Amino acid sequence: MTQNKGKFFGSILIVIGTSVGGGMLALPMLSAATGFLRASILLLSLWALMATTALLVLKINLTLPKYKNSFSSMASTCLGWRGKLLASFSCMLLLYSLTAAYISGGASLLTNALNELHIQVPIWITAVLFVIILGGAIFWSTKATDHLNRGLISIKGFLLSMSLVFIAPHIDITLLFHSHAKSPTQYLWTAVPIFLCSFGFHTVIPSIRNYIGDKPQELKTIILSGTLVTFTIYLLWLAASLGTIPSASDHGSSVGEFINLLSIAANNKWIAFGINGFANIAITTSFLGVALGLFDFLADAFGRSDTRSGRLQTSLLTFIPPLFFALLYPKGFVIALGYAAIFVAILEIILPALMAYKLQIWKPTWLIIIFMIGITIISLQIMAGLHLLPTRG
C-alpha cells in the first residue's frame, strides 16, 4: 500500500472511529419502543443529513489555507466575528466536554485493567497515563494518530463482528417489524438527538484536510465512505439487538444491563465479552478523533506553529484543561454531555447551512430546510432534558 493510499484508508478509519463510540450501544435502548423499521428510517435520514452537512463543511474548508481552517476560521471568514464567537464557544465546549469524558472513562478502564494484575494505583495516575499514551500520538503527528487508530479499530471491528456473528442465529425477523408500544412513532423524538450525535465527526474534517491535502474528490470519498460504513454498522447493530430481545420493556435501564440481557437471550457469554471489549476500545478511538479535532482547532485559534515546540504548546492547551476537570468535576461534564446534541446541531448543521448560504455554494431552499432541522433538533434536546418527551414503550 502506497503512502497516499495509506493516508486515504487511515482517514476513513478516523471518520469511523470518531463517529462509532460506546454510545452506539445505547441506540437500541432508545429505539426499542419504536421498532426496527422506524429506527432504520430515522437512522437513514440522519445519515443523509450529516453526510450532506459534512460535504458542505468540506467545500467551505477548502476555501481556506491549510492549518488556518478550523471551525472558528471558517465561521469568521463567512459570518464575521459573531459567527466566529458562536463557532469557537460551541466547538470548545463540545470538544473539551467529550475529551474530558473520554479521559475519565479511559482512566477507569486502565485502573480496572491494572487491578486485574493486582496493581493498585490512584485514578489520577491512570488518567495521566491515558493522556500521555494516546495524547502523545496526537502531539507527535496526525500520521501517528492515524496508525494507532488503525490498530485499535481493527481490534474493535473484530470484537463487534464476533458479537454479531454469535447474535445472528438468534434474530427473530418478526420482532424487527413489530413494536409493543401503542403509539411507537412518538418515541422517535427522544431518540433523534442521540442518533444525531452518533454521526458527529465534522470537527475532525479540518484535520483530515490538513493530512490529505487539497484533494477535493479524495476528501469527498473519505467522508462518504466513512459515514456509509458507520451507517451500516449501526443498522446491523439495531437489527441484531432489536431482533433478539423480544420486548421494549426488556431492554434494561443501563447499557450494562442491556448487554447482559442480550447475552442471556442469545445464551452466549462471549457476546458480553465482545461487546464490552468493543465499548472499551471505542472510548480510545473516539478520544483520538475528538482530541485531534480539538488539537487542530486550538492550534489555529491560538496561532501555534506545526513545530515540536508549537505542538507541545498546543498539546498542553488540548489536554490539561479536560484532564483537570475530568478529575475534579466529572459530574459537570456528564451534564454537559447530556446536551452535546445542542452543540453538535449548532456546529454541524446550523453553522454549515449559514456559511454555505453566505458563500452561495448550494441552493438557498435546501440550506433553509437544513437550518430549520437544526433548530428542531435543539428544541427536541431541550424538551428531552426537561422530561417533556416520552422515553419508554
Spans of at least 5 consecutive residues whose pLDDT stays below 50 are none
The biggest beta sheet reads:
none
Mean pLDDT: 84
Structural class: mainly alpha
* Name of the CATH homologous superfamily: Amino acid/polyamine transporter I
CATH class: Mainly Alpha
Q: Into how many domains do the coordinates divide?
A: 1
Q: What distance separates the N and C termini?
A: 50 Å
Helical run tally: 16
Please name the CATH architecture: Up-down Bundle
Radius of gyration: 20 Å
- What is the string of helix and strand elements? HHHHHHHHHHHHHHHH
State the helicity in percent bands.
over 70%
Shape descriptor reads: globular
For this structure, the CATH topology is: Amino acid/polyamine transporter I
What is the beta-strand fraction? under 5%
Number of distinct beta strands: 0
What is the strand and helix layout of this fold?
Blueprint: H1 3-19, H2 27-31, H3 36-61, H4 71-116, H5 123-140, H6 142-167, H7 173-176, H8 188-197, H9 205-212, H10 216-242, H11 255-266, H12 269-301, H13 308-328, H14 330-338, H15 340-359, H16 364-385
Helix pairs in contact: 1-6, 1-9, 1-10, 1-12, 3-8, 3-10, 3-15, 4-5, 4-12, 4-13, 4-14, 4-15, 5-6, 5-12, 5-13, 6-12, 8-15, 8-16, 11-12, 12-13, 15-16
